[in-house]
Design a protein that fits this description.
The chain is mainly beta. It has one domain. The chain contains one helix and five strands; from the N terminus they run E-E-E-E-E-H. Strands 2-1-5-4-3 form a five-stranded mixed β-sheet, with no helix packed on it. The radius of gyration is 18 Å and the shape is elongated.
Length: 100
């Protein structure tokens, strides 16, 4: 499942970065997300603050009769994260993380 990550320096700011990943599931609120890159020593750490699901329902009827099955689709999943510093965070990440 394709998941778009919006990365925020602070709670009130606009997103500073956006990254897309193919994931087997959706991180939950409070989860620590660690991103590694082959050209970087250390990693970047973020804490999930919210997940947003954008869904599309193909039928304008509010309800259906028993036995009728209409299935909607997922159009997008966005996970909002705030910067965090972990034990293996890169020096660059530590410098840019608020309060570090």
């Amino acid at each position: 499942m394709k998941v778009q990550f919006l990365l925020f320096q602070n709670d009130g700011d606009d997103a500073s970065h956006s990254l897309a990943f193919e994931l087997p599931g959706i991180p939950q609120v409070g989860d620590l997300v660690t991103i590694s890159r082959p050209d970087q020593e250390g990693c970047t750490d973020f804490v999930v603050r919210r997940a947003q699901w954008d869904l599309n329902f193909p039928d304008d009827h509010v309800s259906h009769r028993a036995g009728e099955v209409v299935i909607g689709t997922t159009t997008a999943v966005t996970v909002e994260c705030v910067f965090s510093v972990g034990p293996y965070s890169s020096e660059e990440h530590k410098r840019t993380a608020p309060g570090a």
